[in-house]
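Handout for the seminar on molecular recognition.
Each group receives one record of this type.
Step one: identify the two inputs.
Step two: read the structure output and locate the region that could contact zinc ion.
Step three: write two sentences on what you found, then compare them with the reference statements printed after the record.
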Amino acid sequence: MKRNIRKKIVLSAAACMALSVSLSACKKSYESEFNEAQVSVEEGTLTDAEANTGAAEVQSVTSFGPTVPADHNETGASTGTGTNSGSQTAESQSGSAGSSAASKATATSQTAETVVQETKAPISFETRDETVYIMKDDVNIRKEPVDGEPLGKANTGDSFHRTGYSSSGWSRIEYNGATAYISSEFTTTDVVEKKTSEAVAFNTGWEFGGNSKINSGTATLYYASGSSKKNKTVCVNAGHGTKGGESVKTLCHPDGTPKVTGGSTAAGNTKATAVSSGTTMLDGTSEAYVNLKVAKALKSVLLERGYNVLMIRESEDVQLDNIARTVMANEKASCHIAIHYDSTTSNKGAFFMTVADGIKNMYPVSTIWTESDRLGASIINGLSGNGVKIFGDGTMQMDLTQTSYSKIPSIDLELGDRSSDYSDASVSVLAKGIADGVDIFYS
Ligand SMILES: [Zn+2]
């Protein structure tokens, strides 16, 4: 009984959403409306007595909103969890007999019992034996129809064997060898092509986005296909390659504090070059070009292994500074690997920049630096396992813009220096080594 009463309340929150009122505003209004009954919308801590007291008001609220469109229910933003409560709640309306039950119910202590019985009426399925395609991203796959435990997400072009169809709006499908359910709204028997990539534009509203000065460019998010999807997105950031980036300055740290180590900008500075131009290989080829060559090879290997890849740059120039690249990775990726070559000429081998001690207590570094260092160590292991020369223990401590703004595991990887070999054969070994390292990190 408790659970179903809670459903009715959050259901009205969903109806509120359909009226373009923000969920937090909704929540507030319900809190004040149900204040006397001490109903907790969020936690569902109703006692039976409280539930009964609130029943009349619950019914009156459910009648004010239109049915929430199904596409507000079963799908959500690909990167955020903020819409979760909305998507969880609205389902009880679209997929069950709940809304009609609610209108019939009266404000007595019997009300909740009536709702319980009608809500739990089993959904019947007509037998189907067909392939269905998904028409939208982020569609919930559930263990039971309506409000069952989410088992995963389906995306545009995914296909499933449908074994049952219900007039209540649900399809029974086979999923990972078991039975699961999905909203029929997003299914079709017509073939839908899988989405293979999409452009990602910068959003200055993202956290720290306001600190970026060059952000008119777009990155590209590539989706892994095949059966071995990892549900992880690796940001592959080919270092440098932003025309004009060396004449613009940005804050080294999100909080404006000074840099604690040297590097291309000396310790003590609060601002650094937005994107430097990089070094030049001994044969005159720009580091930026070689970084891109490695990045493209790495993208192919990662996609083959089931990782999605966010490619920051795929040409000689992208108008995204180091802060924009990092903020974009924070929002769209699971980890961030920047590819570089060092400016020495000793062919010293590969290493990564570990997080500097002096910024480990600074937000957001404090939340993620141990994982960033673990990502770096994993990749050095992967490279070493493929016979790539490693510089020292594979680490160098450095205070970088990239790590200072990262909220996900993030490293600057130096694959060698100006005298390194970047032939196709060498680059393919590097790509395999880095991908092995990503596998190690996620294993
Ligand atoms: Zn570099």
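Reference statements: The pocket of zinc ion is lined by residues 239-240, 278, 287, 340 (CB under 6 Å). The longest strand covers residues 126-134.
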